[in-house]
Amino acid sequence: MKVRANTIITPIVFTLFLLFPCIALAASQGEFIDLTSHTAGYVAIFVFVVAYFFVMMEEFTHMRKSKPVLLAAGIIWGLIAWIYASNGFTHAAEQAVRHNILEYAELFLFLLVAMTYINAMEERNIFEALRVRLVCAGFSFRKIFWITGLLAFFISPVADNLTTALLMCAVVMAIGRDNAKFISLACINIVVAANAGGAFSPFGDITTLMVWQKGIIDFFTFFALFIPSVVNWLVPAAIMHFAVPNLYPAKCEIGVKMKRGAFVVMGLFLLTICTAVGFHNFLHLPPMLGMMTGLSYLKLYGFYLRKTHKREGESPKRRMGDEDEELGDPVAFDIFRKIARAEWDTLMFFYGIILCVGGLGFIGYLAMISETMYAGWGATPANIMVGVFSAILDNIPVMFAVLTMYPEMSQGHWLLVTLTAGVGGSMLSIGSAAGVALMGQARGKYTFFGHLKWTPVIALGYGASIYAHFLVNASKF
To answer: Which of 232, 281, 403, 437, by CA, is between 20 and 30 Å from 4?
Structure first.
């Protein structure tokens, strides 16, 4: 059965569509209905654009970014499910939603563990001690700008760009404190560096992981992107350097010490990362499972800290209960407080985005765009535009669409699309998980419009990295 009707989005037509869905049926084949030219598809795009507008206006409206995308996700999938149910496909939309929720669940649990460890390390004064050490070392804001960027670039290939960005942002927040300009520039630098660092590692970013799992590029070939990734970070960082305040942090605070167990918590976090990588590489399990296993390490150690906790001057036999405050030593370590302090708005935002983009993909827009790009434009322009699209939407569904299309390309072009999808999201704060997470962690200091002011400079680095890839990896085309 194949029925088409050209419709436009007007209040009258939309009302008729709601009352009489049979007047606007899209093409269907099997259990797939092409809604790209259907009123529901146009409405879904409109809802998504409006929701993203409110996300970008968070700095002015002060409405949390998760609120509009949560509503948009419900509306989009509600429309899809209603159309499918009206045509007798009662479970097609349900199965698609479950697939999207599975993707979100893996991301959610991974992030929750990472945020919990970061909160635990912050509570143990690890970042404060690092801040004091950097301050007492006499480093200026400009040197700290480069140190945090360098660390973000080289840690993200081992861990992942999101966790690395969260760690470095916590250090920057502790050092910069009330200097909003420094925090904003340092966060932009961290996002660019973390995304660039994750682009040349098979497990540094979700997009590289997808390409690696697909078997298109082998493990060691990814490292051919090292020089282009360095260029992608260094070009904007070198320009932003001159805008960083040439000042020194506040006076060194003597006597700041890490709390008991701080080094163990850091070791457990490293062990958790290794567990996640090992589970994925050797056992072929989702990295999330390794992260959740690592959370048990912290929970067990937290139990030990509570059992051995005592007030200053108290006998070791007297243990603390669940009191919120105490004199002397800090309160006993409570793992659930660290979980509760996770950035829930960011986690809910990811849910909304994954469901919204997943809905648009299910409608057929992502496949349609991919086919138009690779069939009409050619591999090079299409792969460059993938990076641009990943800054606006999200690199995961964009890369998934490319892998679904599986266009016939050389290894050099597959490396190119891996690079552009990985670093293209740096051009907007909402273009990568690292940027979104830092907007929540440094709320009010690192913002969408603060990042947008430096988009031309970041785009210059984006273009330079593509040129470097063609220059360095010419033999792979």
So the answer is: 403
